C-alpha cells in the first residue's frame, strides 16, 4: 500500500509540474490584476450592507479576510479560515458535515439531516448556499475576500442569519486583460500520509464588453486515523472482527471541481454575470478517534465512505434605473450525498443494556434458518438537496444624506432523505416489509419555503452622525412527509405498524417511492398530506453611528434574528417553534498613526429566546424541541499594527459568557421548575454554559516581508488558542461524552517571490497539538465509547505558484 501511495504521489507531482509548465508558456497579453481583488495592507472594500463601502466606515462587526490574507495563510477550506475568525466555532464529524456557530449561539446537535435550520447563513457572492445537512465547504481559491458578519443579520440576510453570516466573494471576470495563475502543493502529515493540491485560474477577455473567468482545482488530503484490529462479542454468542477493514491512515479525502463566470457588460450601467460551480468530495474511512483504543485510532467494521457532490448555477444582474442601483440574484443548487457508515456501536450499546435487565438484544437477529447472525448495523444513506432562491433589490445613491435599500426574497429548499439501516443476512420476516436485510428505514421528504420583504433606511443627521433603521417581514412554511421505522416482523407499535390505513385496513396514499407505506403526515379523508410548521413575523435592526473623526467610528446596534420552526421526524413528537435572538451591541473602529494601527471591536449582549435544542431521544431517534432562554455576553476585538516597514502584527480575540437562564427539564416545563415529584428531572441547571463554543478564543499572527537582492521574501507565524468547552448541553450526558479541552496550535511559513514565481515552505500545527473540535457518540446510549475529532496533526509542506 505504501508503494502504491508513492506511485500516486509521483504521478501527482508530475501532473503539477506539467500544468505549471503549460501555464508558464501561456502568452501574457496583459498583466492585469483582478478588478475585485483587495490588498489587506490598505483600504478594504466590503459589501456587507449590500453596498460597496470601506470596512472602517461600516457600523457592523466584520472580519474581512482579503485576497492577501487568504493567500498568506494558504486558505482553501472552512477549516483553514475559521482559525482567523475568533467569534466562530463549529462542530464537524467529516468533510462536508460541519455546523457553524457565531458568538456562542450554540445548543449543539443542530446538524442532523432533519434538524433545525442553521443559525449562520453562508453566501457565495449574492446567492445563499446554506443547506440543512451542513455548511457547504466551498474550495477557496481565486477569492477576493471572505466577510464574517457577527450578530443577527436578519434584516438584509434572512432566516439562516440568526447569529451571523459568512460571505465568500469571488474574483469576477475582467475585460481589462488576460490573467492567469497556478499553484501546487505537496504535504506530509505526521503519523499520516502524503497529500497535495493543484489549483489554477484563467481570466480571458472575449471582447471589450465580455470576459470569462475559469477556476479549477484538485486536492488530496492525507489520512491520519488508523483502523486497527478489534473484535466485538454479543450475548447471542456471536463474535465479529474487523480484519478485512484494518488499514493505516484510512480517512483520506479527494476533492476536485471548478468555477466558471461570464461577465457581459451590456452598456455602462448594466452587467449580467452567469456563474456555474461544481465540486465533488470523496471521503473514506472514519474521522474520529476512539481514545480507548489509542492515539488517532479506531476499531470500525465495514468499508465506510462519503461522496458529496454539489453544483450551483447562478445569475446576477446589476444595473441602474435613474439614480437607483438594481440587483437581481437567482440561483439553483443541487447537492447529493451518498454514504455508508458503521453503526456497530449501537448494537453493542443496546446489547449491554438488554443484558443488564437479563435480556439479549443480539438474540432478536437471526437469518431465515433461525441461526444467530452479526447484529451490528450499517447505514446506507442518500441525501438529495435542491435549493432555489431569488432576490430583487434596489438601492438609492450612496452619496446622498438619505439612503434607502429594499427588496423581495424567495427561497425553496427540498431534502429527500433515505437512510437504510442494514443487518447483513437478516431474516426477511424480521426486516422492514419488502426490504430484506433492512431493520430500519427512513424515507422522507422535507420542503422549506421562505418569503420576505426587507428594507433599510439611513439618514445622516449631521455630517458625522447617521441613524439606520431596517425591517424584514417574513413568512415560512416548512413540511415533512414520509415513512420511518421498523417492519411488522420486528415491532407492533412503530414503523409499518403505525402507517395510516383506511377503514378496510388498506394503506393510505400517497406513498413515497421506495417506502412500504406512510406514517408521517396529516390524514385528510383518505389521503395523507405533509405535516406543516408555518409562521410569520418581523426582524429589525436599529443602528446609530458617530464618525468622531475621519479615523474613528463609534456605533450602537439593536438587532434581531430568527430561525424558523419545523417538524420532528417522529410523528408523535410535536413540532418545534421558531427561536429568536436579540442583540444589543456597542462597537468601535479606530485607525491611527497614518493607517499603521487599526483597532476594531464590540461589546454585546444577546438574548436567545426558547432556543431550539436537538438531542438523541428514545431509541436514539433525533428529537427537536424548544429549550429555555439563554443570555450571551461578550467582547470581540482585533488589532492590526505595522510598527516598522515590512512587519505586520495582527491579534484578535473573543470572550463569551453564554449561559442558560432557566433549567432545561427532561419534559417540557416553561417555568423551568422541573418538579421531581412528577418525575421531571433537571437536564441542565439554570446558569449552565452553552456547549461547543470556547469561553475564549484568540489568534495572533506576525509576518515580516523583506527583500533578498531583487526578490521579495517573508517569514510568518500564526498562533491560535481555544479554551475548553462542554460537548453537550445536557450536564450528565456531557460528562459521559467528555469535555472539549483547551488547545493551542502554531503554524509557521517562509517563502520567496522570484518575479512571477513564488515558493513557500510551511509547517502547520507545528507542535502536533491534539486539539479537539468535537466530541460525539453515534447513539444516545453509546457513551461507553465516545469519539474525539481532532485538528489535523502536524503537517509539513511546500507550495509553488505562478501569477500573471
Which percent range describes the beta-strand content? Answer: over 45%
Number of strands: 43
Roughly how many Å apart are the termini? Answer: 39 Å
Which secondary-structure class do the elements indicate?
A: mainly beta
Percent helix, as a range, is under 10%
- Overall pLDDT level: 90
Radius of gyration: 27 Å
Main sheet makeup: 22 strands, antiparallel, barrel
Principal-axes geometry comes out as globular
Describe the SSE topology:
Elements lengths: L1 H23 L20 E2 L6 E2 L7 E5 H6 L5 H4 L6 E7 L2 E6 L17 E5 L2 E2 L14 E8 L3 H4 L6 E7 L8 E11 L4 E12 L4 E12 L4 E2 L3 E3 L5 E3 L11 E13 L5 E14 L12 E2 L6 E17 L2 E20 H13 L20 E19 L6 E21 L15 E23 L4 E21 L36 E3 L2 E3 L1 E19 L2 E12 L15 E14 L4 E13 L2 E5 L5 E5 L3 E12 L5 E14 L3 E2 L16 E3 L11 E13 L2 E12 L8 H7 L5 E12 L2 E8 L7 E5 L10 E4 L4 E9 L1
Parallel strand pairs: 6-9, 13-18
Antiparallel strand pairs: 1-2, 3-8, 4-5, 6-7, 8-9, 10-11, 10-43, 11-12, 12-16, 14-15, 16-17, 17-19, 19-20, 20-21, 21-22, 22-23, 23-24, 24-27, 25-26, 27-28, 28-29, 29-30, 30-33, 31-32, 33-34, 34-37, 35-36, 37-38, 38-39, 39-40, 40-43, 41-42
Amino acid at each position: 500500500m505504501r508503494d502504491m501511495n508513492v506511485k500516486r504521489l509521483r504521478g501527482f507531482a508530475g501532473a503539477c509540474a506539467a500544468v505549471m509548465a503549460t501555464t508558464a508558456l501561456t502568452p501574457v497579453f496583459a498583466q492585469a490584476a483582478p478588478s475585485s481583488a483587495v490588498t489587506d495592507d490598505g483600504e478594504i472594500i466590503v459589501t456587507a450592507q449590500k453596498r460597496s463601502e470601506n470596512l472602517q466606515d461600516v457600523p457592523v462587526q466584520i472580519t474581512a479576510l482579503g485576497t492577501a490574507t487568504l493567500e498568506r495563510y494558504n486558505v482553501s477550506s472552512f477549516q483553514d479560515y475559521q482559525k482567523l475568525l475568533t467569534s466562530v466555532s463549529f462542530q464537524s464529524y467529516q468533510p462536508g458535515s460541519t455546523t457553524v456557530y457565531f458568538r456562542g449561539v450554540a445548543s449543539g446537535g443542530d446538524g442532523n439531516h432533519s434538524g433545525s435550520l442553521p443559525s449562520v447563513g453562508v453566501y457565495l457572492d449574492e446567492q445563499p448556499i446554506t443547506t440543512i445537512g451542513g455548511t457547504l465547504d466551498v474550495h477557496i481559491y481565486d477569492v477576493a475576500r471572505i466577510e464574517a458578519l457577527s450578530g443577527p443579520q436578519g434584516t438584509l440576510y434572512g432566516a439562516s442569519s440568526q447569529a451571523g453570516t459568512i460571505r465568500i466573494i469571488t474574483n469576477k471576470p475582467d475585460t481589462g486583460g488576460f490573467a492567469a495563475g497556478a499553484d501546487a502543493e505537496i504535504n506530509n502529515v505526521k503519523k499520516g500520509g502524503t497529500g497535495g493540491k493543484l489549483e489554477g485560474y484563467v481570466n480571458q477577455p472575449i471582447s471589450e464588453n465580455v470576459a470569462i473567468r475559469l477556476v479549477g482545482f484538485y486536492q488530496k488530503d492525507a489520512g491520519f486515523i488508523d483502523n486497527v484490529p478489534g473484535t466485538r462479542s454479543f450475548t447471542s454468542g456471536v463474535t465479529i472482527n474487523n480484519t478485512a477493514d484494518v488499514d493505516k491512515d484510512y480517512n483520506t479525502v479527494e476533492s476536485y471541481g471548478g468555477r466558471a463566470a461570464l461577465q457581459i457588460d451590456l452598456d455602462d450601467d448594466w452587467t449580467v454575470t452567469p456563474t456555474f460551480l461544481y465540486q465533488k468530495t470523496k471521503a473514506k474511512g472514519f474521522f474520529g478517534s476512539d481514545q480507548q483504543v489509542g492515539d488517532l485510532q479506531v476499531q470500525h467494521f465495514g468499508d465506510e465512505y462519503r461522496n458529496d457532490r454539489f453544483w450551483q448555477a447562478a445569475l446576477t444582474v446589476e444595473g441602474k434605473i435613474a439614480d437607483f442601483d438594481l440587483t437581481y440574484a437567482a440561483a439553483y443548487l443541487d447537492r447529493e450525498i451518498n454514504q455508508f457508515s458503521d453503526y456497530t456501536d449501537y448494537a453493542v450499546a443496546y446489547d449491554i443494556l438488554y443484558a443488564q435487565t437479563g435480556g439479549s438484544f443480539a438474540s432478536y437477529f437471526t437469518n431465515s434458518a433461525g441461526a444467530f447472525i452479526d447484529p451490528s448495523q450499517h447505514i446506507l444513506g442518500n441525501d438529495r438537496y435542491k435549493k432555489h432562491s431569488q432576490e430583487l433589490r434596489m438601492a438609492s445613491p450612496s452619496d446622498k444624506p438619505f439612503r434607502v435599500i429594499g427588496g423581495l426574497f424567495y427561497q425553496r429548499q427540498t431534502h429527500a432523505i433515505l437512510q437504510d439501516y442494514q443487518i447483513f443476512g437478516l431474516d426477511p420476516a424480521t426486516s422492514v416489509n419488502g426490504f430484506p436485510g433492512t431493520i430500519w428505514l427512513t424515507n422522507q421528504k422535507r420542503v422549506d419555503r421562505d418569503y420576505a420583504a426587507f428594507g433599510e433606511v439611513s439618514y445622516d443627521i449631521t455630517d458625522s452622525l447617521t441613524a439606520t433603521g431596517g425591517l424584514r417581514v417574513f413568512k415560512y412554511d416548512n413540511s415533512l412527509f414520509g415513512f420511518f421505522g421498523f417492519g411488522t416482523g420486528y415491532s407492533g407499535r412503530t414503523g409499518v405498524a403505525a402507517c395510516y390505513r383506511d377503514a378496510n385496513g388498506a394503506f393510505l396514499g400517497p406513498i413515497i417511492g421506495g417506502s412500504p407505506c406512510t406514517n408521517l403526515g396529516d390524514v385528510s379523508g383518505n389521503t395523507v398530506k405533509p405535516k406543516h410548521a408555518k409562521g410569520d413575523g418581523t426582524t429589525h435592526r436599529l443602528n446609530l453611528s458617530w464618525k468622531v473623526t475621519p479615523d474613528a467610528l463609534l456605533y450602537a446596534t439593536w438587532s434581531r434574528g430568527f430561525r424558523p420552526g419545523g417538524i420532528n421526524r417522529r410523528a408523535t413528537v410535536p413540532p418545534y417553534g421558531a427561536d429568536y435572538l436579540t442583540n444589543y451591541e456597542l462597537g468601535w473602529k479606530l485607525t491611527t498613526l497614518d493607517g499603521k494601527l487599526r483597532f476594531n471591536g464590540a461589546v454585546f449582549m444577546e438574548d436567545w429566546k426558547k432556543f431550539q435544542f436537538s438531542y438523541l431521544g428514545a431509541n436514539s431517534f433525533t428529537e427537536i424541541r424548544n429549550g429555555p432562554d439563554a443570555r450571551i455576553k461578550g467582547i470581540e476585538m482585533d488589532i492590526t499594527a505595522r510598527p516598522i516597514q515590512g512587519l505586520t502584527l495582527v491579534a484578535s480575540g473573543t470572550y463569551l459568557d453564554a449561559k442558560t437562564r432557566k433549567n432545561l427539564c427532561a419534559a417540557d416545563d416553561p417555568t423551568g421548575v422541573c418538579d421531581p415529584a412528577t418525575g421531571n428531572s433537571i437536564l441542565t441547571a439554570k446558569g449552565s454554559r452553552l456547549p461547543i463554543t470556547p469561553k475564549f478564543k484568540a489568534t495572533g499572527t506576525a509576518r515580516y516581508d523583506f527583500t533578498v537582492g531583487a526578490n521579495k521574501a517573508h517569514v510568518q507565524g500564526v498562533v491560535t488558542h481555544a479554551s475548553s468547552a462542554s460537548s453537550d448541553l445536557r450536564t450528565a450526558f456531557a460528562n459521559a461524552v467528555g469535555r472539549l479541552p483547551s488547545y493551542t496550535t502554531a503554524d509557521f511559513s517562509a517563502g520567496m517571490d522570484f518575479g512571477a514565481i513564488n515558493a513557500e515552505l510551511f509547517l502547520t500545527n507545528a507542535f502536533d497539538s491534539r486539539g479537539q473540535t468535537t466530541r460525539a457518540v453515534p447513539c444516545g446510549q453509546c457513551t461507553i465509547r465516545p469519539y474525539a475529532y481532532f485538528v489535523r496533526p502536524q503537517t509539513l509542506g511546500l507550495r509553488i505558484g505562478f501569477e500573471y
